[in-house]
Write a structure and sequence with these properties.
The chain is built from three helices and no strands. The protein starts with 17 loop residues before the first helix and ends with a helix. It has a domain of 37 residues. This is Plasmid segregation centromere-binding protein ParG.
Length: 74
């Protein structure tokens, strides 16, 4: 038995050139950004995710705001 899978066209929301999209996004920022990866308990992640989803917010924006409140623009 052979399984056939067909793929449609690329979604139009996806940038044609991801590298250019990242560069363009960096230009929009006031300063260069750095990625931060942290490990948190699954229960905490679930709570953050559900509350953000209920408000239509992104987790990254929420965490960024909390970090700014704690550390500000020193």
């Amino acid at each position: 038995m052979t399984k056939k899978v067909s793929f449609g066209a690329k979604p139009s929301a996806q940038p044609a050139n991801p590298d250019q999209w990242v560069k363009d996004r960096a230009v929009q920022e006031k300063e260069p950004t750095k990625r931060l990866t942290i490990d948190i308990p699954e229960s905490l992640h679930r709570a953050i995710k559900s509350q953000c989803a209920a408000r239509g917010a992104k987790i990254a924006d929420e965490v960024r705001e909390l970090l700014l409140q704690k550390y500000g623009n020193q």
